[in-house]
Amino acid sequence: MLAHLPPVLQNLQLPLRLRLWDGHELDLGPSPSVTLVLKEPQVISQFSHPSLDRLGSAFIEGKVDVEGEIGDVIRLCDELSQAILHDDDGTAPVRSAHDKDTDERSIAYHYDLSNEFYQLWLDRDMAYSCAYFHTGQETLEQAQQDKFRHLCRKLRLRQGDYLLDVGCGWGGLARFAAREFGARVLGITLSKEQLKLARARVVAEGLQHQVELQLLDYRDLPQDGRFDKVVSVGMFEHVGHANLGLYCQRLCGAVREGGLVMNHGITARHTDGRPVGRGAGEFIGRYVFPHGELPHLSMVDAQVSEAGLEVVDVESLRLHYARTLQHWSTRLENQLETAAGMVSEQSLRIWRLYLAGCAYGFSRGWINIHQILAVKPYTDGHTGLPWTRDDIYSS
C-alpha cells in the first residue's frame, strides 16, 4: 500500500493513520492517535505539498474526514506540514481594499452566521474576544467578566463617563460598563444580527437609558471629541493595513483631550504584517475572515502616534487567548450534533478547524494579541494620568 503514497510521506514517524478511499489503512508512525480519512484518490496529491491551507481546504470541502481529538488533528497536521515543507515565514502581505461595502459584507459573512450558533460555545454574555485569566483555572464565564473589568479599570472608567465601544458585538462590554461602572455607552457594529440581539439584551437588563447601540461604520464617527473614553475590542483586525491610519484618526477625533483610547486586538508576528506561514494565514483569509489583515504591534503603535494619541501602556495576552480558544473549541466539540442543526456542514467544519487551529497557533506564538492603551494629551502636553499603574491592579 505504500505505493499509494508520495515518497515524502514514506519515511515519516508520526502517530497518524491514513484511511484510503478503498478501505486500506496506512500508518505513518507507531500508535496512531489521529486518522485522516481520504475520500477520493485525487486528494492524495495534497500530501505531496501538505500546506495547512491545502489540508484544511480538503477537510472543508469534504474530501477528507478526521477521527480523533480536534486538537490532536491540528497538531499532527502541523507536524506533517512542517516535516515536509520545513519553516515557511509566509507570503508577502496583500493590501486589500477596505471600502464600506466590502467591510460590511465581510462582517456579515463572519458574524451574521447565527446568533444561536455562537451561543453554543461562547460565554453567557457572548464575548467573542480574548478572556482574561488570573490563574488560568477560571471558568470561561469568570474570565470574560474579568476581561471586561480589566478593560474598564485600564480606561479608568468613572460614573457618568461617556464611553464609545467600537465593534460592540453582542453588547456584553457595553452593558458591563454601564451596570458596574455607571458609564453612558454608545456601541457601534456593522453586524445586523449582533445588533438585534444586543439591543434586546440592553432592554432586558433595563439599561436602555445608559446604553445606545447603532449600526454605524467607524468612518462615520463624530469628530467633535464628545467621548470621555473609547474602547475597541477585536476590531482593528477588520480595518486593513491601508486604513489603519484613518481608523486611529477617527478614534482620536472622537475622544476629548485627556481621554483614553483602548485597542484590544490580534497582532501579527512579523513586522510587515504578512500572514502566518505554511498556508495557515491563507486558510483564515479564505474561509473565516475575508479581507482580514493583522498589523504588527509596531505598525499599530506608529499609526496611533501619528493620529495624535500617546501610547501609555501595552500588554500581551497571547496565552490568555490560547486558553480562551481552547475553551471555545471544547465547548463546540461537545455540541457538534446541536451545531449541525444550526449551520451548514461546511460552516461547522470551518469553525472546528478555526477554533482549534487558532488555539494551537496562539499557544505556539504564531500570532499575538495586545491591549494598547493611549491617551489624547492636552495641548500643554499633560495627560491627567496617575504616575503609576497601581490603581489598575489594586482591589
Automatic annotation (TrEMBL):
Gene3D superfamilies cross-referenced by the UniProt entry: Vaccinia Virus protein VP39
Entry-linked SUPFAM superfamilies: S-adenosyl-L-methionine-dependent methyltransferases
DUF7884 domain mapped to chain residues: 12-87
Pfam families (UniProt xref): CMAS, DUF7884
Keyword tags: Lipid metabolism, Methyltransferase, S-adenosyl-L-methionine, Transferase
InterPro entries for this protein: CFA/CMAS, CfaB-like, CMAS, DUF7884, SAM-dependent_MTases_sf
BP-aspect Gene Ontology terms: methylation
Highest rank taxon of the organism: Bacteria
GO molecular function: methyltransferase activity
Family of the protein in this entry: Belongs to the CFA/CMAS family.
Name of protein: Class I SAM-dependent methyltransferase
Taxonomic source organism: Pseudomonas coleopterorum
